[in-house]
Every structure is written in structure tokens, then in C-alpha cells.
Amino acid sequence: MVRVTILHPDLGIGGAERLIVDAATGLKERGHSVRIVTNQYDKNHCFQETLNLDICTVVKWIPRSFFGKGHALLAYIKMIVAAFYIALFYRDTDVVLSDSVSAGQFVLRYLSNAKLVFYCHYPDRLLTKRNGQLKAAYRIVIDWIEECSTGLADVICVNSNFTKGVVQETFKSLQSRELTVLYPSLNTAFFDSIQPSDHFGNDFNIDAKYIFTSFNRFERKKNIVLALDSFAQLKSNFSTSDFAKFHLIIAGGYDKNNLENIEHYDELKKHAEDLGLTDNQVTFLRSPSDEVKINIIRKSRAVLYTPDREHFGIVPVEAMYLGTPVIAVNTGGPRETVRNNETGYLVNQNAEEFAEKMKEILQDEKKYQKLSEEGPKWVQRTFAFEAFSRKLDEIVLSVL
Fold first, then answer.
1. Can you give the residue ranges of the Glycosyltransferase subfamily 4-like N-terminal domain (predicted)?
2. Whole-number Å distance between alpha carbons of 128 and 135
3. Where are the domains of the chain?
């Protein structure tokens, strides 16, 4: 048995959080002792499996920003404080698995005897704009901390070959380091345990024959506007009576404490109105439960996956396993997860091409059935929970 402590910034319901929950569950099932230390955890805004995990929340009192500024600096400080907590109170830890924010490894490397595994989703320096000289100077320090602290790990994992290439190109000091690709998994047993249902919850009911769905956090970088634009473009290809059979669901993680989530949700609703899409045609759903999410995907004709250069993206894997074709932007992680013309489509980032494939899935039943049947087979072979947990177990054992 290996004593593993997982260090994660915010245990909400995003893709990074899904991976951490699966990692904890997988290691626990393989007989290891697992606990999670996090800066933020809300039992009303989490994955269901976390209720059965050993979770410790520290430094909740540190804000996420100072009047909308300093997000990265405060995230680094919070992770450093959490790392001190592990070093002081969890001294029996054999391995610390951390992800997203690497700054805590400065503390863990020199104050803890534990081996360090860091899971890099994507370099933070590539996700931040540098507006103005002050911001640019501030980011020089933050970027240096990110690169140096990432390099302190005994093993560095990445979520895709795409991310591997980006990390090696971005962090020059890591170009000679071996990076281990560990694809995020899908807990297929949990998906199988959810009984099919036409009921999506108490908030809404949809009678449309064909549903298209976008699942992403309400963040601007997720490019959810493209899903609305594509649906509006699809509308122009059909008569009013035919289009009445279609519906678009915009769903995803929504944190009431996250200003961008609040603002972008309102921006998307306004954009739908500007496109002439009514409430009878588009439904916005904030933080649906796992059961609702799974059954929405099952009922969908296709899932629209709109982020550009997404590092991995678990939603296409979830959709394919449930037999729902995916239409995704032909960049980043989806190029490794979606098999073009076999489990879905990879297209350019514009509404016209998305709408063209939506139309094809609607009108070509034979093609739709083929995509639907191949998806689950592909996921079982490549992204099943068993394959993920087995490889992670090997990494944890090898680092010792």
C-alpha cells in the first residue's frame, strides 16, 4: 500500500476535477491510502464520488483575486500554504500527486520526503494575456515559478500528446525531460449505473425530436458562442416547421462565486436573443447533476465541442461512450480522442462547417448509426477507467 496525498486547487466539477476524482478512486480501489487536500470544496458543487473520499479543505479564507486582479499569484500562494499543510500534518505521505498549479512543489521538494508526481494539463503562461508593462513584468515572475516548480517533480505527466508537445516547446528547461502521457479516463461503471431517463430534472422538459448539446464550463475560452452560431446557421437550412423539431442545450459548470461564469452566462443568453433563438429553441442549464448530464447526452443527436486547442477535453469521450457522435474543432486534444468520420467529425472553427455536419447527422440515419455504434467501442479500448487507473498505479509504484 502506498500513502498518496492529492493536492488540487479547487475540487469543483470541471475536467481537471474529474481527473482528480478518478485518480483518487482508481488508486483507492487498488489498495492505496488516498486523501485529497484542496483550497475549495463544496458538497453542493462537486462530483458525486467525492462524497466517499477523504477530503481536507484548507486556506478557504484567501480570496481568488483582489478586485479581479492577481488570480495566478493568489492561486500560487494558496497552493504553497496547502503544501505546507501536507508537509506538517501528513508527514507519512509516500507520494504527492498534484496538478494544475505547480508552485506547491517548492515546499514539498524541500520540506517533505514524499516523491512528487505532477500532472500538467497545460502551461498557465499560455492562457494569460499580458496587457501592459506591469502585467508583463508580473507574469515574468509567475512564469518562472511555474516552469521551475514543474521541473521539481519526479514524474511529469501530461494529458495528451498535444499537451506534451506544447509543454516541451514552452518550458525550455524541460525539453530533455521524459513526459508521460496519461489520458484522463472515463469511469464507465458509473455511467452504466445511471438508468436511462427522458426526465432531465425539475427545471425543464424538452419535447423536441432532435437535441444538440454543448457541455462546457461557462468560460469565454470555451467558445460556446460557436454552438449558438452553428445552431442559428442550421436554422437557415430548414423550414420553420422542421426547425421546431430541433433544440439546443447549453450546459456546464457554473460557480456562483466565479465572476466570469456569471458574466458569460448572461452574455450567452443575450447572444441567443440577438440570433433570434427563443427559449423554445435553446435551454441554458447551470451545473446539472451527473445523472441529468448523462441522460441529456444519451438523448442528444450530437454533442458540439467548441473549444479551440483544448488540451484534452473529457466531454467528447463521455459522449462517444454514450453512443452520441461528436462534432469538434479540429485542434488540440479532440484530434486524439475523436476519430474523424468514425466516432464523430473534426471540423474548422466556424458555424458553417459545424452546421453542415449537424445537418448530415440529422439527414443521414445510416451514418448516424455508424458513428453511434463505433464511439463506445473506441472509448472502451482507449479511455476506460481500468486502463487509466492501471497506468497511474504503475506511475505511483515506479516513482518509489
1. 13-189
2. 10
3. 3-185+384-399, 189-382
